Amino acid sequence: MPHQRQDISAAGCKFAAYRLDGAAPAATELIWAHGWGHSHAALAPLAEAMRWRADSWLVDLPGFGASPLPPGPWGTEDYADAMAEWIAALPPRRRVWVGHSFGCRVGLQLAARHPQSVAALFLIAAAGLPPHRALATRARRLPRRLAFRMLRAVTPEGPARDRLRERYGSSDYRAAGTMRPVLIKAVNEDLSDVARGVRMPVVLVHGEADRESPPEIATRFAALIPGAQLHLLRGFDHWTILTDGRHQVAHLLGDLIESLR
User: Fold this and answer.
1) Torsion 212-95-57-243 (CA) sign
2) Per-residue pLDDT reduced to its tens digit, 11-27
3) Engineered SS bond to 4: which of 19, 169, 182, 235, CB 3.0-4.6 Å?
4) CB burial class (10 A; 0-12, 13-18, 19+) of residue 5?
5) How many CB atoms lie within 10 A of CB 71?
């Protein structure tokens, strides 16, 4: 079903939002926020699967998909403030924020800073805490990190240092381009205090095989957020949880919607 695009202006930025009406009138509305480097299209199949339960908005967060860049090096709190301003202008509804990865970071900030915006969070492959890596993993990565630090110390800012970042940075970093300052802020943030401040129903759904955002991050979030529910799904990673795992994810989201009635 084609999605109805609207161009939104909020908090000094512009972004695209796509409306997907449910198959029948629904009391609950879902707001879908994608992961880093993706767009609303990554979550569209899940939103389609939920049409019989809820209406949906799918967002291209500023700097992704059809949305222009944010006006500066935004942090996730800036994204949350923009989403809150937009939501406040919508007709009153019971809303659930459905985030994947980076979209979970924004959702947590939204719930903590603007709790009136949404009634619950549904967080898929949540990110936002520094990973606790095994000693063997840290040991394997140490030589590369040390080499980068040593070379960076003797390389002035400019094209040479940019080439250094390209060589040693992650795939997300290399692909980030003009969004690199936003990425750096996001990967260095610790949302522990933000999570402690969330006071609404939260469901965390995570793939046990996730290597981008290890399951232990979801376990720690569940301990930090009062009353949070955690579901670890076997056989899925950071991306396949949205595709091969979509039926299980949709079932759990339906349970959350039902619990809010």
Assistant:
1) positive
2) 999 999 999 988 777 88
3) 19
4) middle
5) 13
